[in-house]
Amino acid sequence: MATSRTIFYVYEHWRLDRDECFYVGKGRGSRAYSTKNRNRHHQAIVAKLSRTGSAFEVRIVASGLSEPEAFELERERIAFWRSSDVDLTNLTDGGEGVSGFRLSDETKKKLSEIGKKRGAPKLTKEQQEKASGWHRGRKRSSETCQKISQAKKGKSSTTKGRPSPLKGRSISLETRKLMSEKTIERWAKTREKCGGVIVGRKLTEPEKLAISERKKAYWRRWREKQNGDV
User: Fold this and answer.
1) 0.90 exceeded by pTM
2) For residues 57-74, b (16+ Cβ closer than 10 Å) or e, as one string?
């Protein structure tokens, strides 16, 4: 049974659209699952995930820790991800503060600047192996797999390396002629909509006036529609 001294844990927030860690934290209770009192970078990512129909997953790295142990592990995880060129939303290198104590925005900014100048701390080989093995062999729940699947739906997949369905297929002269006629017809309609304007040619004053009037008429109809007059 965990004592009052070993109630802390270290957690990570993973974005499901990329399956990538974007935040490392230390906490206790329900802190890992709360989105309150997060910095603006963290809030921006959470808002984007919600807007695109995705979400983030909370992964507990280790629990039953004392506060010094949790701080130490937090520093190791942040250093590991930064040394792996992962763009975390953490403002500092971790391992600072007291549980329940909030840093001011000014202090956070100063700590962030100090951390950037100092750069990501280098890990020993032992620390790297230990850090990279936290999630090795970890199986995702069916709920998490479903969220990742939903987040990736509707996104275009790369076709690099795949053979084109038209590659090697010969097009008849009749088909080429038909395609050419359709292209000419499409461009004729486009020129007609643009009032016969040709790209690269300077417009005359009457042409500019006509385009201006058409734009004014369009936006007038749009405003009337928005106001319910149409």
Assistant:
1) no
2) bebebeeebebebbbbbb
